[in-house]
Amino acid sequence: MLLSFVYVPILLSYLGVTNYGIWMTIMTIINWINYFDIGIGNGLRNLLTSFIVQNKFKEAKIAVSTAYVALSLISFLFLIIGSVAIILIDTKNVFNSVEPLKLVLFISFFFICINFIFSLSKTELYSLHQAEKTSYILILTQCINLVGIFSLSLFGNGSILAISILTGFSTAISYIIFSMEIWRKKKYLAPNFHLYQAKMLKAICNLGVEFFIIQIAVLVLYSSDNFIIIKLFGPDAVTPYTTTYNAFGIVNGLFGAMIAPLWSRFTVAFVRKDFIWMKKTLNKLNLSLIPIILVLLCGVLFFKPLSVIWLHKTLFFDKGLIPMMGIYYFLMIWGSIYSTFLNGIGKIKLQLYLAVFGALINIPLSIFFGKYCEMRTTGVLLATIICMVISNVPLTIQAINYLRKNSSN
Predict the structure, then answer these.
(1) Fewer Cβ close by (within 10 Å): the C or N end of the chain?
(2) C-alpha distances in angstroms, 27 versus 178, 227, 330?
(3) Residues 398, 404: Cα–Cα separation, whole Å
(4) How many CB atoms lie within 10 A of CB 115?
(5) Residues 27 and 107 in one domain
(6) For residues 377 and 140, what is the distance between their CA atoms, to the nearest angstrom?
(7) Which controlled-vocabulary keywords does the entry list (predicted)?
């Protein structure tokens, strides 16, 4: 996060407000491919955790190998489809810009397809209860990005193409390094393409398909805002929105670092029927919301003057955007507590229905509040907040009722 604080203003200075907004939108759209794994990543996470805790290492190796083969085929398919789509689309219309962006999209899409496969290393780390090492991957990536953007800023300005190459390369090399290290230490997690089994893929996807539908719905709910903003209000409006989003996201990132291991820990507790531990853990997480509220409130009060110091320039923020962002991240953190618990124990039906419903109403609500109510980016964010409230309340009730029933038994 500290590296990001240094990186963002240098990147913004290098690209300028307009190109920065375009690049953030490109990254949002390109990263959508990470959600199209048919739920293999999350399905593998629960299954692999169960195998490891039961010392079924042969089954674990088959599961990992099957997942890598399946993701490699999906990635190759997406590379072909994406390349054709990039050739056919009118980038000037899509991104509301005269910048030539096809080569940028090709390079970004190529790297994201490679990273799509090697991102399974994070699933392996979660299953080993080594969630902290997924952050090491991000740190290495950000270090390479920081050195790269600093070097680029010495020799020129404004090249989105150079940034696309730098970003793709840094992520790919980080994933490959950590994947090799995992496979060296845990031989049973190294994929062997000859061990692919269709029945194992079915076992992964039994729960994985539901995760996949949730992922797609979440994609529409959380990742469409930049695209809506750039279409309705132009790329300049994306920059203050994403800057606020990234700054407040620090709180979510810190909480995410704390909660990341718990998905797999909940899976282990579920296998062992340790409902008392689950209940105590959720109570502790709920108490952590109190300091989070105070931190977000401070962020709302002091963000504007701090942003000038941070970015070395003054940005125009739509009225109400900053306090709305504080509410947004509180709801996200609250929701992540109960979704992590329910994901870990595999109770995701209700979450699936709520996610799909939220995805269906989010874009129309965003256009209504943003355009017709003239709330601009604040209205787009308000639409997402409404969808989050609709989801968070039922999921919280479901989790509490589940634990009350099972811990009493």
Answers:
(1) C
(2) 23, 10, 24
(3) 10
(4) 20
(5) yes
(6) 33
(7) Cell membrane, Membrane, Transmembrane, Transmembrane helix
Structure tokens at 21: 């907004």
CB neighbours (10 Å) of residue 302? 11
Q: Which of 122, 151, 120 is nearest to 135 (CA)?
A: 122
- Domain-terminating residue out of 172, 205, 238: 205
By residue count, the chain amounts to 409
CB 107 within 8 A of CB 161: yes
* Shared domain check, 142 and 247: no
**CA angle (338 as vertex; 335, 340 as ends), nearest 5:** 100
| Cα gap 203→56, rounded to integer Å | 15
Q: For residues 94 and 242, what is the distance between their CA atoms, to the nearest angstrom?
A: 18
Domain encompassing residue 355: 224-409
d(CA 32, CA 110): 13
Number of structural domains found in the chain: 2
Q: Is the pTM of this model over 0.70?
A: no
Q: How far apart are CA 38 and CA 208, in angstroms?
A: 7
Cβ 194 vs Cβ 64: under 8 Å = no
Examine the domain organization and report whether 197 and 228 are in the same domain.
no
CA 379 to chain centre: 22
Q: Which residues contact 217 (CB under 8 A, 6 or more apart)?
A: 352, 355, 356, 358, 359
212 domain residue, yes or no: no
Decide if 135 is inside a domain.
yes
CB 22 within 8 A of CB 97: yes
Query: Could you list the pLDDT tens digit for every one of the 409 residues in the chain?
Result: 788 778 888 888 888 878 888 888 788 777 776 666 666 777 788 788 888 888 888 999 999 999 899 889 888 888 898 889 888 888 777 777 667 788 888 888 888 888 888 888 888 888 888 878 888 888 999 999 999 988 888 877 778 888 889 988 998 999 999 999 999 988 888 988 888 888 888 887 776 667 777 777 777 776 677 778 888 888 788 888 888 988 898 898 889 888 878 888 888 888 888 898 999 999 999 999 999 999 999 999 998 888 888 777 788 888 999 999 999 999 999 999 999 999 888 888 898 899 889 888 988 999 999 989 989 999 999 999 999 999 999 999 999 999 888 876 6
How far is the CA of 401 from the CAs of 198, 302, 321, 394, 406, in angstroms?
Answer: 36, 39, 35, 11, 9
Structure tokens at 82: 């994406």
Reading the block at residue 342, the tokens are: 């329910």
